[in-house]
Amino acid sequence: MEHILSSCSTALTQGRYRWRHDQVIRDMADILERQRIKKRKQPQPKAIHFVKEGQP
Fold this sequence. Notes:
The chain has 56 residues and is mainly α. Helix content is 55%, strand content 0%. It is built from two helices and no strands. It is rod-shaped.
């Protein structure tokens, strides 16, 4: 990953920089999507019903 992000001048002149950039973005998007889905599977917290002082 370090080489992908290093802005290699040869890769830049050959047009590979865009491909590498796109691969990094795709990998990051995949990771973020997995985390987003994982969080969605967790149960939602239950509502808290407040009772005024003196009420049962």
